[in-house]
Records
---
Amino acid sequence: MDIIKKDSEYIVNTYSRFPVCITSGKGALLYDDAGREYIDLGSGIAVNTFGAADGEWAAAVATQAAKLQHTSNLYYTEPCVKLAEMLCERTGMEKVFFSNSGAEANECAIKAARRYAFKKYGDESHSTIITFKNGFHGRTITTLAATGQDVFHTDFGPFTPGFVYADPNDPASIEKLAAEHGCAAIMFETIQGEGGVLELPEETVNAIRNTAKKYGLLIVIDEVQTGNGRTGKLFSYMHHGLEPDIVSTAKGLAGGLPLGATLFGKRTADVYTPGTHGSTFGGNPVCCAAAISVLSRITDDLLREIERKGEYIRGALEGSSGIKSVSGRGLMLGVECGRPASEVVTDCRARGVLALSAKTKVRLLPPYCITDEQLEKAISILKEVCAK
Ligand SMILES: *Cc1c(COP(=O)(O)O)cnc(C)c1O
């Protein structure tokens, strides 16, 4: 069967796929239908936390699937409760709502921020949410509206109103927007992933903290990509000592199965009441069993390993020929090369290394289990491709 031809015949044409059909993998190695081996520096976009077909993860999934795969949220099940308890104990957050994707986790966060403000003011006067230019929050109509990039704001209008965009490099723009609009919350990624692996400057993080306090705004952090250990802390806000009111996550949480989570702090824990939000699949036992297995392995030792591997990549690339800069933290890195990122990604693939791009950067999101040997080999190939 010609997969690539049939894909173009039957699958809606929304993706610019690479001309590779992946059939299996083990850890940081992936194999295509011609039997070629690749070193994976993308983890399925920060999803396959412990790489492909990890034994412990697969066993957790298979065990739960053989017991019970789904009940609906009309009944209690153990895995989602256990996972919520783990998430709260490790973050200090108080309650969790489970969904199936990053966009849904953010939709849940946005609804909660609006409902919080509606209850506080008794009307819609403080429904505006400040987000950031160049951010990314998802593909639904509302999360596209939250995404501060003009390229996403065409063709599908009308978009959900009530979002204004601060400039990540102009800390004063945050308070200016808070003063001009009736706001409920400030929502952001600490490292803009799709936007090019750009970390918010510390002055911007401070301005968020100060403006939120002065105007009574909720702090909502989109940890869909940065969460679950990716940056060397369980959640990236922990690098900045932030105390969020709402945290959304997804991607790597269940290590390869669809699961979104929205975490609520003291002020927001009781915003939702019966009937005000829901999801058919949310908190699915198989996905939650997968996430329990993932989360229980994101230990302090593993987080140190993530930092160490990230430092290795940085050290190997910085100052190397054809490499201008390296951004990001832990195993979420952006590499500005002298050559266009798409060419670098293509040449790497031809040499058996799968990298990603984000805007002008080559983006690296390797699985945490990548071995030093695999990493050295992949990074030396990336260096050679950049030096070309
Ligand atoms: C990927 C991503 C999303 C969207 O997640 P989906 O699971 O594709 O809906 C939202 N926010 C950030 C920061 C992301 O990286």
Note: The first strand starts at residue 22 and ends at 26.
---
Amino acid sequence: MGNVQPWFILAMCVAGGITSIPMHMQYISTRGQTPPLSFEKTVMTGLAPDGGLLLPESIPDVSGALSQWRELPYTALAEQVMSRFFDMTPELQALISPSYATFRSPEVAPVVSWAGEPLHIMELFHGPTLAFKDVALQWLGNLFEHILEKHDSHLNIVGATSGDTGSAAIHGVRGKPRINIFIMHPKGRTSPVQELQMTTVLDENVFNLAIEGTFDDCQAIVKDMLADAQLHRRYSLGAVNSINWARVLAQVVYYFYGVFRVQERTAAATVDVTVPTGNFGDIFAGYVAMRMGLPIRRLVLAANDNNILERFFTTGEYRRGTVRPTLSPSMDIQIASNFERYLYYRSGCDAQKTAALMSEFAAGGSIRLDGGDPAFAAGSAGRDETLEAIRWMKQRFDYIPDPHTAVGIHVARQRLDPAIPMLCLATAHPAKFPDAIRQALGDVRPAHPLIDALEGLPVRCETLSAAAAEVRRYVIEHAQAGNR
Ligand SMILES: *Cc1c(COP(=O)(O)O)cnc(C)c1O
């Protein structure tokens, strides 16, 4: 252990932003006890062996490329952004277009604007499961398969979902012969539509597990399995949760795309971006884009009643609470797994300090950081405010946001600055959450053909207790053989 000296990581971090394109970008752990890994290893590993999360050794400064990137359609932009983080071989390049061909909008992430209005909405829900996670997971499925073919190996994906991750992951890898996928969801806590989007997938490589517990329980089981080096190696386990760097990277792309569109329409020099937040994955991608030189003035974090992150950004205290079910179930999270990546940067790229903070949090359930961060603002929306935001959008713009997006819109409205446009990320299609929409708007029922088609289909799902040992046994029994 201890292969990477803390001073070495610090030096690489300081160099970030000054360096040009590194030929072979290496990835390091937030906890500093893992030797640098290649991009391929990083994608296949998920969690670092020392329990930390993986990050590029430096974040490239792309300010000089922005004027050219503005002109690019989505997939060409994705190629450019991603190629700053790994060697873009022709084979890897060939994966990008097919990953976005499954989207129902040729723009992939269209931005909706209204003349003279400071509010803009980027629709990230045109993929096969109608939530923003498709943007990353359609690509990740293809990336996994490509790497597995190259090495003639197999993969068993284990993941936890509070709703949208699971279905997006399942749709990203269904039918891929080298992959089995085990997705745990908290039984009865995802919306009926979210559940059907997972359980109606009958491909042999897909295993849906309904866990009698919370999302955090599911996530703890996953972390436990991935942290067991022997199990990990023997069964060739992989993660698709937002801890996977490739997911963050795919999400960095649309921040560029969205900010460019808003700038075209408003001639604004900088843009504020509001992000409905659960695991801190999506908004962390925005933070990476910001550090790359994209002119985002401020990232506005929007939480529901599970507002541990709002409290952190307003008080400096990060304190664990209990999960409360809300109208926006994909944000019903108290321990945001990507937050550690932010802590690493916030600690001045000090892995030792990050590791110390994480163990302090694990032991006592809270940590405190002084000083605040001008890159972030934060707010939250309770039930009534979420419903009110849906009504406000409908009345004012004849536009129906899903309840996650509505949380963001409520928070964004409190933060509107007439001089700076506000881009709100729309993370799901409203038809995924008909109950919330009915509570807000009465008889209005937003429909989508992909969802109507789920009705009456056969389903496949196994119920298990929240005991890690039981889940582990199930996964071992149904796993594909590891590397051949
Ligand atoms: C996952 C999800 C979120 C939260 O995203 P994080 O990356 O976990 O912060 C918000 N809205 C919807 C619809 C989601 O599926």
Note: Residues 245-266 form the longest helix (22 residues).
